[in-house]
Predict the 3D structure of the following.
Amino acid sequence: MPNSPWWAIVPAASIVVVVFGIEAAPDSADILTWLALLTAPPLAAFALGWLVHGTAPVWALLAVPLFVLAWASQESLAGETAATLLSGLACIALGWLMVSVVPADWLRWGIYAMAAIDAVLIAAELLQDPSAVLSAAAPGGLPRFQVLDFGAARMGFGDAFLAATVGCLLAYDRRLQLRAAALLAVLALSFDLLFFAVDTLPATVPVALALFLSDVFRRSPG
């Protein structure tokens, strides 16, 4: 079903399936961990070679040393940086795929739905435990790509996937894309102040807000 609005349910469905799937069968976290391990490096190579602005196919080979570094130095900041880059680049490839198969307006609604569901699940404390199980799962000593760890900060793969999808959605207009990125940085930093009051926040909410406000500004006269 190429270019079908039905694919717009994938972002929202992914978070529901993962949360309730792990809740029902905790061992499924191991399957998701191995799935991330097997798919993230080739997806990252594709993004490096063909999707990221200014790159060339030969850049895809950079995924190899990044993987080696992520494996050899898992407890160091350098290893975490390499793993985070691979996971983030894989999200770009998946975001590009979503933009390629979903009409833009429908994809926007899918993004808003994922952020809303994420916020509801966290507020109801239904996401925290499954997320902790998924983050802790390790594929036999190999690097984990289902979660983005960077020092004391941690972000779920789904959060990065949504941000990458918004970036791909706005890639047709470089200035709009950069404006949305700057807006997201401000919103995310402001949103993070809530960590003084709570332990877990839905990182998808600032992403959805940045997309919404970018569309408002784009359509405003002048």
